[in-house]
Amino acid sequence: MSNPVDLLSPVWTHLTQVQPVRGEGIYLYDAEGTRYTDFTSGIGVTNTGHCHPRVVQAIQAQAGELIFGQMNIVVSPAAIRLAEKLNEVTPAPIDRFFFSNSGAEAVEASVKLAHGNPSPQHRRISGQFSWSHTSGHGHDDLKVHVPVRLPTTARWDLRHAVSLRVLLWLE
Amino acid sequence: MSQCWARGGYVPAPAPFLRELRTLCDRHGILLVVDEVQTGFGRTGKFFAFEHAGIVPDIMVIAKGLGSGMPISGIASHADLMAHWKAGTHGGTYGGGNALAAAAAAATIDVIREEGLVDNAAAMGQRLVQGLRDLQAEYPVIGDVRGLGLMIGVEFMQGGQAAPEVAARVQKACLQRNLLLLTCGTYGNVIRWIPPLVVTAAQIDEALGVFNEALAAA
After folding, report:
1. CATH topology assigned to domain B4-114
2. Most buried in the list A7, A111, B49, B213, measured by CB within 10 Å?
3. Which residues pair with B77 in a beta bridge?
4. Of the given ranges (B85-94, B162-171, B189-198), which has the lowest mean pLDDT?
């Protein structure tokens, strides 16, 4: 195989063949020093710009102290600090935070939390539907499909239908 | 629900719709789950997009801008609802345990707040929309210019029909000029503008200049 790029799975689409080696603010630079203006933010990720110095510093400092503190084994202080920060920017009464790795996993978590809620005023959507999630098709967002297999035996009233529509109107 | 339908072409949900949805959910005991994956962390000119409508969701889904590129996402809710989530029924190996991602996310929130990036997103978004509307007056192939903050879609239409081939040509002309822009939309006819929130007025103007050249070339 002559070109090592061919080692990458063909499943990824690539907007460009640019191979950036450095990022700074809104710009990416390749090995030749050519500058590219990144108005994609890597699909809406780099809100603080590429390699914001304070983000870089936080990662570097943390890497020298502790990289991984598994949540079911210990209580991660970095996660506690993040929850405190999030609590400052989210409105009351929101005050509990769960962490995962990707948008797809977070949507899955939201469906599981909503689904498992036994509060009498929030009726369960159904005990019988299933969902799955996939990431998007490369050119688009990391989007999540929540296909629902409607149980044939369940009784569906308007409340169920509205719940599902709300859940399904996810990206 | 998604408050700015990204895949569909950056279509913001109207605030009165969201408020009525909140009312309906409250009346019928339905949980309102909002997707802040792309709209969160200042993107729309508010810290979270639901603030535009003045509503508070029961569950919010966060990712993308949270970690500035480190893989981290999450959900947020209130204590009463979370209390029903039985310990051990959900989790994962890395979630919450990746201290690098958590540290990056905490620093990201500090940067957004202390550097005024939410206000900058609102101001730069206005500047960008104005510049795009000026171009719309010159190029009738531009249909709708819409969005919130720095999450803006430019729609391409020809003869009353979606024109994805024009959007693709303009996008390609931008790429040739080293301006990276994505498309979106049900018909693929929308070019989307989602620059980093640290973008300056001069950088917005420069990109608009490149876009103008690309429109003329395409």
Report:
1. Aspartate Aminotransferase; domain 2 (3.40.640)
2. B49
3. A96, B59
4. B85-94
Q: Count Cβ atoms below 10 Å from residue A149 Cβ, excluding itself.
A: 10
Chain A residue numbers with beta carbons less than 8 Å from the beta carbon of B128 are none
Enter the DSSP assignment of B70. B
pTM of the model: 0.87
Residue among B58, B60, B3 at smallest CA distance from B28: B58
Homologous superfamily, domain B117-217:
Aspartate Aminotransferase, domain 1 (3.90.1150.10)
pLDDT in tens, B116-129: 999 999 999 999 99
Q: Is the pLDDT of residue B213 over 70?
A: yes
Beta-bridge partner residues of B179: A37
Inform me whether the C-beta atom of residue A33 falls under 8 Å from chain B C-beta atoms: no
pLDDT of A161 reads 40
Instruction: Give yes or no for A48 touching B (CB within 8 A).
Output: yes
Domain ranges of chain B: 4-114, 117-217
B29: Cα within 13 Å, side-chain hemisphere: 12
**Nearest-by-Cβ selection for A171 from B7, B84, B199:** B7
Structure tokens at B134: 């000026």
Beta bridge partners of B35: B2, B61
What ipTM was assigned to the predicted interfaces of this complex?
Answer: 0.95
Q: What are phi and psi of A24, to 5 degrees?
A: -155, 115
pLDDT digits (tens, 9 = 90+) for B157-193: 999 999 999 999 999 999 999 999 999 999 999 999 9
In the three-class reduction of DSSP (H, G, I as helix; E, B as strand; rest coil), residue B162 is classed as strand
Residue B90 in this model has a pLDDT that exceeds 90: yes
Q: What is the pLDDT of residue A116?
A: 74
Contact B128/B167 with Cβ under 8 angstroms?
no
For an interface test with A, the pick among B17, B30, B210 (most A C-beta atoms closer than 10 Å) comes out as B30
